[in-house]
Amino acid sequence: RAILAEEGDMSPVTAMLMPHHGSRTSSSPAFIESFRPRVAVAQAGHANRYGFPDARVLRRYRAVDSRVFDTARDGAIMIDWPATAERPRVRSWRRHLETAGPGRRDLALQWWRGHL
Predict the structure, then answer these.
(1) CA–CA gap between residue 91 and residue 113 (Å, rounded)
(2) Residue 59 — pLDDT band, cuts 50, 70, 90?
(3) What span, in angstroms and rounded, lies between the C-alpha atoms of 96 and 31?
(4) What is the helix (H) or strand (E) element at residue 91, kind and residue range?
(5) Residue 37: is the preceding peptide bond cis (ω within 30°)?
(6) CA nearest to 60, candidates 91, 89, 38, 27
(7) Nearest CA among 79, 35, 78 for reference residue 60
(8) Which is more confident, 16 or 51?
(9) Nearest CA to 96 among 88, 107, 112?
């Protein structure tokens, strides 16, 4: 509410992270309508105990034609904005690694150990 009161209409934005992991109370219809993101990403852990992101919130983003991604389902999300492209390119880390190259778990271990 404070952002809307201070900034007013922010639409449209290219991409945004959903506030508070896509919780039920953090993305009101007015908030989403104000920003109207082309891409909306919910940062949530797989099978998290809070049930983030909330299904109603995902529907709210989709209702304004946002491409919705959920890291609990889709894995890490990479967004590129090529200078010549009209729209951002969105890729999923999980899908990319499961189709070619080292497994996701193997690559994550390399990152943690600093061997990459």
Answers:
(1) 25
(2) very high
(3) 32
(4) strand 89-92
(5) no
(6) 27
(7) 35
(8) 16
(9) 107
Return the sign of the alpha-carbon dihedral for residues 19, 25, 30, 36: positive
Predicted confidence band of residue 8 (pLDDT cuts 50, 70, 90): low
Q: Which two tokens stand for residue 96?
A: 């990319």
Closest CA to 70 of 57, 81, 82, 80: 57
- Residues with Cβ within 8 Å of 28's Cβ and at least 6 positions away in sequence, in order, are 1
Q: Tell me, what amino acid is at 73?
A: R
Residue appearing with tokens 């709210």: 60
Q: Is the pLDDT of residue 101 over 80?
A: no
